[in-house]
Structures
1.
Amino acid sequence: MPDRVDDSPPLDFALYGLSDSWQGARWLAALEGKVGTPLWAAWLGHFSNDAAVFTGSAARTRHDELHTAPGADRLSQVAFTAAFAMSNFTLPAAADQRPEKVLDAVVAEVEHAAAEHHRWENASWELDGEILAAKVWRFAGAWCAFTDTLTDEYLFAYGIGVEPDDLEFSKVTDTQQYGFSRRQRLGPAALAEIKKPNLPRPAQLHEDHRKLVS
């Protein structure tokens, strides 16, 4: 599982969020990287009514160096990053509703799905007027997706309450709308200070979770 970070240098790769057509709350949701080292990914949250979308941006070279062994399928690791982030979102928040055997089964399912990324649904995204091809996987009432068509970053997303096809993205030029400065060092303390909406979480396991351990 990805490490959490503490006082890492400011982000040195491009961030992508939903375009201005999305009306709702925005915030810096999560950071990926080792303590004190350059981050390899960041997630931005978007919430409106009953719909939520999280967009992830990863430094392409750094992601590959950290997660892809020589000769391994690079896109399987990219798909895993998207699917693992989404799978956590589908689980109940209460610890007593997340038995260990379910968590283990979910990780195994995510690994299997990532290895089969070529079977994922096709989707089209728009990024600042450019059409991008994306791949989508659905699980436990949510979906996750990724595109590897950008030169320097991977773009991920996962969500609920809105369909993944035809989402509109923009390169983030003003991070203040997400509650932080592009120039600041980032870590748990910075995340804790950012105002976040009260997102609804499942009260119990989804049928897809139960099937994995039945």
Note: The longest helix spans residues 74-90.
2.
Amino acid sequence: MTGAGKKITVLFVIALIFIFFRLYDIQNPFSTNGIDEGIHLLQAKMVSSGYNLYSELGGDQAPLAILTFSLFKGNVMAARYLSFSLFLVASFSSFLISARIKNRKAGVLTVLILALDFTLLRESRLASLDLFSASLLSISALFFILYIDNKKIMNVALASLFLSMSCLSKMIAAPFALIITLIFLYRTLKERNFLHISAYIVFFILPFIPLLLVFTPQELMEGMLFRQMNRGFDIFSKLSFLLFIGPGFIYLLLIRKWDLNNKKIAFLVTWLLSLLVFLMIQGRTLQHHFVYVVFPAAILTSIVLCDMEKSLKGKALLASFVAFNAVLSSSLILTAPHDLAYDTADEIEGIVPDDYMVISGNPLVNVLAGREAPPNLTNLAYYHYPPTEPSDVIYWLKKGDVGAVVLYWHLADMDEVRQYLNESGNYTMYKVIEGRGQILFYGIKPKFSEDRYVIYVKKDLLKPGP
């Protein structure tokens, strides 16, 4: 083996180590995107019990990922391992893209960057809709690159299929899908290649067919689009970009003049810029959204690094990126706090019978305890449409079907709910569980939350038996 070959092998081994190291203590991720993971898994669990994601649960995301999680009945660990598996497949797809466009070294560098990227580290330890969709997009991109090379109809069909599935997992992929579809249609119409156009259209529509057997077109439009358009605009959230580019400073190499006459390079640049621009102009930009741009950014960066093969600047930048993110990844994984949702769920499971519902500010508690929530209270996030009001919660408390309430996150800020629980005579404060929580990101400021779960239990359930 040559000296260059040995270096590539060493880099590949480092990449593999950090890819699989993220599985360590995956039951306690250092960040769960607030309560997003819990929302989607609770909805998946209740979909598996027969609820309609949109008309009954008020879902506000595309359905494919949540329906897939429902196959596991919302099981937390199964869903997280699925996310990790998709990350693996997407990383391999990205390797093949880089190797095909440049060389094998570029492929290895791509995998190394993906293995150490902070945003991907965070998302690949969660049941993440963003990673689910972005991974399918990476697979689609591989088939687009193959199609550019050989014009085989099977490649364009598979590219279209995975592109459609990506959009049906989360609609952030839609801007890229729209642009690339228009470019494809323009070029193939110009070539009068109607067979390939037909294959593209048919395979793009294909994933919609089973969904239309479950949902009406109105439900899909409402859930996938309209409920996402009422989340307001937060200019401060745009600073989340700094949390992406800070640890990922190696992506600054992308600021250069690219040869857009090269169709494959033009495709990658379109993939990157269409999504990056959309992320920055949408109402609220959160750090985990940048998982969409990591894959094209890593591929293009690896190409630049190969062009700088003899440059000390390139070697120094790569070495500092690896060193910094290796330390960051290790420290975050090894110091991740125990998730108090497990302890809270154990308390709920031990005292609330199966036939009672539980209202929790962190829906992950419901999933872990195996207790459903009132169908319109699966999403208690601060920003969703229609917003959850205290009156929505109190309505269910008055019905008497709720065995416990866990004040946390947005629910803990609803003073009217707390007041009702204290004054109604039907509920009593049972226990407070508190300690260090996950890392949250306020603009550019990372901070460990102080988790505090306040458990109220229906008094009837606390009465001693005969």
Note: Residues 76-101 form the longest helix (26 residues).
3.
Amino acid sequence: MNRKFILLIVISVSFNLCISSKPTRMIFIEQIYRLYESNLHTTHTDHKRNIFWLENCLSLPNIHPSQAIVVTKDWEEYVKYKLLLRFHIHYLLTKEYVDWGWEYDKRDIAFYNIEWAKEIKNSFEIAKSRYLIARRYWEETKKWSNLAYGKKLHIGWEQIEDLNYEIENNLFDYDYDTIIDMRLKDLERKIKIVDSYLAKNN
């Protein structure tokens, strides 16, 4: 990881802590999650940055309930809030890894690029590794989604609760199970073409 980038994160978090109404030496999952949301990048060069934030915040504790993203009224609502937060972080990681994989996967095999077969195969292998990680995070997403949905409470986190409802009721348009399987199968097809070319030309 780029040292300048890590320094930027530390400075950003430190600044947020300094202006907090309740200063603390700890860093919490919500603070990094908010950094991700406020600094969201969508170009392929930034997937690594976004993933770095999201993966590292999963190991952090939750902030005090009074400073949570959604202020809840009782313990049961707070439990659902924590489940929804982890559900959404795993969902975002799934999306980031799928999108990152696509950056290495979007080329098809044609007569005008087959001469770069070794480079193309390497790109496809990277894409495959990203999709496999995405599948793991999608399984975690579904696990946390189910746990959150099992708490029959509405806490007012509309966008995340709507996403939770859609996934649990098969209303979500972007089924990552299907998408990841389709992309992995297509990668297998393209890698076979590349391997065949390499075998004939070595």
Note: The longest helix spans residues 117-149.
4.
Amino acid sequence: MAHLGVFEQLRNKESLDGLVEDAIVWATAHGLVMVPAKAEPASAVCHAPIALTPVPYPRDTFVRAKSAAEDFSLLMDAVARDEEYLVRTLSPVAKHDDFVARQLGVLQRTAAERAQHRASENVISHLRSDYMLHEPTSSLLQVEINTIGVSFACLGSKTAGLHRHLLGRLGGSEADAERLPGNEALTGLVDAIGAAVRSYEAAARSAEARDSPAVVVMRNLYDQQWVQLGLWERHGVRTLRRTLAQLAAQAALAERRGDGARALTVDGERVAVVYYRAGYVPDDYLDPERDWAARELVERSDAFKLPSVAYQLAGAKKVQQDLATPGRVEAFFAATATDAEAARAARALVRSFFAGQWAPGEPEAHEAVADALARPEAYVLKPQREGGGHNLYGAALRAKLAEGGEALGAYVLMQRIAPPIHRAVLLRDGAAREADTLSELGVYSVLVRQGGRIVLSQGAGHLVRTKTADSDEGGVAAGYGVLDSPILV
């Protein structure tokens, strides 16, 4: 791995300072930026947190993870379509988790309304399946699969460009640069939304539906600005940025059509797609009754939802734990397969990535819970939350398990993955530091479904996030990790 020699250069302060300055200039010039956590969006930006050099990654493992992208997409679509399964699996969680309970309520009411009026559902799936290498076998295990507010497809796709530039600065060879895989994460997402808008307009066949914009419910301004620009430049699709509060005030449903559907309007303008980059944590619902009503109104419409509430529920940690039980994945693939041999291969590939997961309140988990109490460092306890900073480790994990009781039904106990550690130079807020780090690979996929017809389904790029080896969490926006990219070895 010849490129690892660059670290010797980075031990020289003059070389490091020069590279840091170059990285900041490149990131700023190419839009690899974020708004500081405490800054007003209009007042300041800074470079995104980044690793100065790419992380070595096994080529075969990378290719294998990418090859599973569409299989995971089809699996999660089958799960999201199965209302009965979602209700059965998540009702025990909802007893102790109001956030899940609200989602289930929206799902059941809107599904009943669609069934009553024979209206179809339009959805876009943008998933990211996250993995870590597990020592000593170097097997690749899934950390989680994300179904809402999936981040950094935009900024992450630019990190490989930064690394290609910096490798050149450090004297890396052309062969090294060629080992940085291309990353279609931004265009993959943009093209999926563009395909949904075109499908919506074609199905509506009305003047009002032409030039229908997409609504982006915002959180991370600059990561999503690239989506907005891409939609306009590649597909001529306009976008409106709105908060849940603004949707509550401005959104409405048109009269029901003959096909049972109702169009969504925002400020009187018909909308084809609603893309949620917020709404995945309770704190996003500042006025819960108002904001949940807005979310339900969107669900009742014929706009493409990215994602639907069903998809958000399909990404719950409890669902992921249940899918790991014997026979569950097999049943979902059997229900959707047209090619038996392909279905067998898909479910075997998907299952090969599963780490050990247990429902800590269930009798089947008794042995795993006992081991976790004795060796808490070998496990992680996960609530039904996204966004980083929610998992329990070590003493906190042991204390929660020791409490016992029905409230444990809101958690999932998972085997803790032990990834390899490597040295890296991390750049955050203009300051660089060398540290022992570990990395997580995310693989994106997209799916567009119009009623029962899948319009598009494919892989859509990747993401690498790197964090210090002593950090339990890894969210970039949450302040735990940095953006990275792989160099294949």
Note: The CA atoms of residues 34 and 101 lie 33 Å apart.
